[in-house]
């Protein structure tokens, strides 16, 4: 059960990262914030090795 949750969580993280790269960070950030997905946006930033609010080349 725990392993299945970890796999699902990893898949969600990877999907979110791909989504952010496809949309461009500004659009993904705006969507996440508008939908109150702040924690998801912050997690994506961690996966990219930066902090939330830090500019990227795409923004």
Derived from helix and strand composition plus strand pairing, the structural class reads mainly alpha
User: Which shape, going by the Cα principal axes?
Assistant: elongated
Instruction: Tell me the fraction of residues in β-strands, as a range.
Output: under 5%
Number of helices: 3
Q: How many β-strand stretches? A: 0
What is the H/E order? HHH
Rg result: 12 Å
Termini, distance in Å? 39 Å
Rounded average pLDDT: 70
List keywords for this structure.
mainly alpha, 73% helix, 59 residues
Nutshell version of this structure?
The protein is built from three helices and no strands. The protein is mainly α and 59 residues long.
Fold and architecture overview:
The chain has 59 residues and is an all-alpha fold. It has a domain at 9-48. It is 73% helix and 0% strand. The protein is built from three helices and no strands. Helix 1 packs across helix 2 (25-34) and helix 1 packs across helix 3 (38-48). It is elongated, with a radius of gyration of 12 Å. It starts with a helix and ends in an 11-residue tail after the last helix. 12% of the residues are buried. The model has no long low-confidence stretch (mean pLDDT 70).
Ordered list of secondary-structure elements with their pairings:
Layout: H1 2-23, H2 25-34, H3 38-48
Helix pairs in contact: 1-2, 1-3
């Amino acid at each position: 059960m725990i392993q299945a949750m970890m796999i699902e969580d990893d898949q969600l993280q990877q999907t979110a990262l791909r989504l952010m790269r496809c949309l461009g960070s500004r659009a993904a950030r705006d969507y996440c914030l508008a939908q109150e997905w702040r924690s998801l946006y912050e997690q994506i930033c961690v996966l990219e090795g930066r902090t939330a609010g830090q500019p990227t080349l795409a923004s």
